From TrEMBL:
UniProt keyword annotation of Cell membrane present: yes
The ABC transporter domain, residue ranges: 4-236
Highest taxon of source: Bacteria
Stored CDD domains: ABC_Carb_Solutes_like
EC top class, as a word: translocase
Gene Ontology molecular function, alphabetical: ABC-type ferric iron transporter activity; ABC-type quaternary ammonium compound transporting activity; ATP binding; ATP hydrolysis activity
Keywords for this protein: ATP-binding, Cell inner membrane, Cell membrane, Ion transport, Iron, Iron transport, Membrane, Nucleotide-binding, Translocase, Transport
Protein name per its UniProtKB record: ABC-type quaternary amine transporter
Transmembrane intervals: none
Parts forming coiled coils: none
GO cellular component: membrane
Extent of the signal sequence: none
UniProt entry tagged with the keyword Ion transport: yes
Species annotation: Speluncibacter jeojiensis
Length: 365
């Protein structure tokens, strides 16, 4: 049974339409990340699910029960939903113990044992219980906010950009810790974020939002590797777009040579998308000496190399043959491509390289 179902939900503030008919299903015990740029409507959707906003139209169901149907809504405090805001929203005058206790039912608020269990769930030492929020780091405050939300034993947990204020290293460790905690507790979770990497690494399902509408919903690997539109493709990462011609099922001919594509790709002229890490750049002397494809490999030259630590981002200019130029006469075939490669094997600036592709390219409408 689906834990959360959103059907045809709309919301406007004055003459501004914020949500234009949202349909979303989150299965029991799973995690969904709603990702989009600032102002696209993702936080408004989260607030409607939480009960802080009322939809203009549409239905929200939780566990098979309607909690919002247009203006008819179940009050937020009766929905059994946990909510963690971006800043944690802890009570500054209360200790950690008192903040966590606030989330417990009245009959359980005297149980220090339960507070200890909740702090342990979010990997906080019991010694923090007597501290106030201003004595904690940002990451510790977010863990307390999560413990307070878990204290209610919610059917659904809503996370509104909870890691934004943390530095990069702490962000990565916190989201991994929070994801593990919620998974172990079996809590259905919806995360709102504008961080693509966060969405892809945190969730079982990703929903990309643009201007109040969802462009694509599905497993993170599917959305990253097979986006259905250019906005989704570019929002989730860097792309390389190339002119192509599909004359045989499963293969597209492009300036990089023959490239595998999904078997259901329509025949004819099109444009295909690759991720920069799918293109392998090999110095031509190495390529020819090792038997790497030579006749179909594209001649190219490295213009720039940006060192990023583990990997490097190359800017490579294609130098296609006259045959390739003639084949794509109406398209530029000598453009600059971005190629991401492991730093220890990254070719030098000025190196002549041959290019070949890993995996499939996809047609993007």
């Amino acid at each position: 049974m689906s834990s959360l179902v959103v059907r045809s939900v709309t919301k406007s503030f004055g003459v501004v339409e914020v949500l234009g008919g949202i349909d979303l299903t989150v299965t029991q015990g799973s995690t969904t990340a709603i990702v989009g740029s600032s102002g696209c409507g993702k936080t408004t959707l989260l607030r409607i699910v939480a009960g802080f906003e009322v939809p203009d139209a549409g239905v929200v169901e939780l566990g098979g029960t309607e909690i919002a149907s247009g203006a008819a809504v179940v009050p937020a405090h009766k929905r059994g939903i946990g909510y963690v805001a971006q800043d944690g929203a802890l009570f500054p005058h209360l200790t950690v113990r008192q903040n966590v206790m606030f989330g417990l039912p009245l009959r359980a608020r005297r149980s220090t044992k339960r507070v200890g269990e909740l702090l342990e769930m979010v990997s906080l030492d019991p010694e923090f219980a007597s501290r106030r929020p201003d004595e904690l780091s940002g990451g510790q405050q977010q863990r307390v906010a999560l413990a307070r939300a878990l204290a209610r034993e919610p059917r659904l947990m809503l996370l509104d950009e909870p890691f934004t204020a943390l530095d990069a290293g702490l962000r990565a460790s916190m989201r991994k810790s929070v994801a593990a905690t919620l998974r172990e507790a079996g809590v259905t979770t919806v995360l709102v974020t504008h961080d693509q990497e966060e969405a892809l690494s945190f969730a079982d399902q990703v929903a990309v939002m643009k201007s109040g509408r969802l462009t694509q919903v599905g497993p993170p690997q599917e959305l990253y590797a097979r986006p259905t539109d250019l906005f989704t493709a570019t929002f989730l990462g860097d792309v390389v777009m190339l002119p192509a011609r599909v004359s045989t099922a499963g293969t597209a001919d492009c300036p990089l040579g023959p490239v595998p594509v999904p078997a259901d790709t329509p025949l004819g002229d099109t444009r295909i998308m690759l991720r920069p890490e799918q293109i392998v750049a090999t110095p031509t002397s190495t390529a020819h000496g090792s038997g790497t494809p030579g006749s179909d490999a594209t001649n190219a030259v490295v213009l720039e190399r940006e060192f990023l630590g583990h990997d490097s981002l190359l800017q490579i200019r294609l130098t296609p043959s006259d045959e390739v130029r003639a084949r794509y006469r109406s398209e530029r075939t000598d453009g600059v491509l971005s190629v991401r490669t492991v730093s220890v094997v990254a070719p030098e600036v000025g190196a002549d390289v041959s290019l070949h592709v890993l995996g499939e390219a996809v047609r993007v409408g």
